[in-house]
User: Which sequence fits this backbone?
């Protein structure tokens, strides 16, 4: 095993341990924790966060613009620009 593979395995091991702790340290799910850790790291490496959106860094402008958009008064949480029935 080369250093790169060893480093990746160590990151997976650490992430699996974090998952185990987060889930209350229950015994018996080590294989699922390992698989979940591998999947999380793969998503991070590909630039996709856990919500399925790109986790690529932005300049913050997009977030600031979305935060300043008015929200629909219907209380449904939709932005006015997303409301197709808005006058």
Assistant:
């Amino acid at each position: 095993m080369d250093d790169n593979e060893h480093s990746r395995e160590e990151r997976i091991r650490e992430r699996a341990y974090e998952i185990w702790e987060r889930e209350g340290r229950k015994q018996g799910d080590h294989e699922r924790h390992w698989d979940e850790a591998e999947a999380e790291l793969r998503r991070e490496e590909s630039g996709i966060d856990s919500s399925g959106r790109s986790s690529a860094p932005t300049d913050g402008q997009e977030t600031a613009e979305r935060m300043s958009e008015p929200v629909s008064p219907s209380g449904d949480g939709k932005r006015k620009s997303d409301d197709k029935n808005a006058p």
